[in-house]
Amino acid sequence: MSVRPFVGWPLMTCGSIASMTKVPINYGTYMLLMVIICALFVLTYPLLMRLCGCDFSKIANLDVADAFGIKEGSINKRQKLSLISLLVFVVTVIAMSLLNTYVPALKWLNTQVTVLGLMVLLFVFVLVVKVDDKPLLDIREASKGFTWDMLFLIAIALLLSNVLTSQETGISAWLSGLLRPVFPNGGFIFLIALAVVTTILTNFCNNIAVCFIMINLVSSMYLNGFDVNLLAASMVIALTTTICAFLTPASSMPGAMLHADSNMTASVVYKGTLLLMVYSVLLLLVVLIPYTLLT
């Protein structure tokens, strides 16, 4: 969920940091680093599971299509047009991020229309365009699956984090002055500290609130003269607040569901999450530390 920086959670981190600092984040570089991290996750996580004694034989003969109710057959016209419109959107966003300095039209899209504007255009497109007298997106059906409680939670978290890190409170300026002697270069040592602290906090507090607080904190520190690699910091925040937030029921919605599962015991959740916390931080830093050293 963190690979594409123009949707959902990564858009919230990258977009918010870029908006607050007025420094654009290169989506191409972001996606490349994220793909490398995901590839390492796919390759190494099964090994970690094996070391923990997981038995893979139980899912060896699992029929995925049957389990998820997938029926064979080609996609229809509505699905094809929806997929094509999404691909056009993705290619346009990546192109205007990578090539905006070379193509005036892409520069105009990147600075004037922005990713948010393209998302609005895509939304209008799927609402207006019809296939077989039906719109690509049925807004009434879509509204039934909208998580209003999550929207209000994000709004409250953003409000609280803005208050905590606003200029009037002086917290950001104080932290910047406190941390600058500890991390004089603001390099990979700071990223390690950011990853560790965010991972710990997000497992005790709500991960959405922690995400917003860290976004505001990093942006405010940067604006107060603290040298921060904003792309790397946005990746740290995006991943550490999503990949592992299960230690307590308050950490996230999946964390609450995990603790409520009758097949789980508290000790199993605690042990597994603590191991996953260490693994996720190491996985993240294995990619980001070389990147920061080379940039």
Question: Top keywords for this entry?
Answer:
mainly alpha, single chain, two-stranded antiparallel sheet, globular, 295 residues, 13 helices
How many distinct helices?
Answer: 13
Please compute the radius of gyration using only Cα atoms.
21 Å
Unreliable stretches covering 5 or more consecutive residues: none
Mean pLDDT metric:
81
Q: What string gives the helices and strands in order? A: HHHHHEEHHHHHHHH
Task: Report the end-to-end length measured between terminal Cα atoms.
Answer: 26 Å
Strand segment tally: 2
Summarize the structure in words:
The chain starts with 7 loop residues before the first helix and ends with a helix. Helix content is 68%, strand content 1%. The protein has 295 residues and is mostly helical. It has helices at 8-21, 27-51, 64-67, 77-98, 104-128, 139-144, 148-164, 171-179, 188-202, 207-223, 230-240, 253-260, 266-294; strands at 130-131, 134-135. The longest helix has 29 residues, at 266-294.
Structure summary:
The protein is built from 13 helices and 2 strands; from the N terminus they run H-H-H-H-H-E-E-H-H-H-H-H-H-H-H.
Describe the SSE topology:
Layout: H1 8-21, H2 27-51, H3 64-67, H4 77-98, H5 104-128, E1 130-131, E2 134-135, H6 139-144, H7 148-164, H8 171-179, H9 188-202, H10 207-223, H11 230-240, H12 253-260, H13 266-294
Antiparallel strand pairs: 1-2
Helix pairs in contact: 1-10, 1-11, 2-13, 4-5, 7-10, 8-10, 9-11, 9-13, 10-11, 11-13
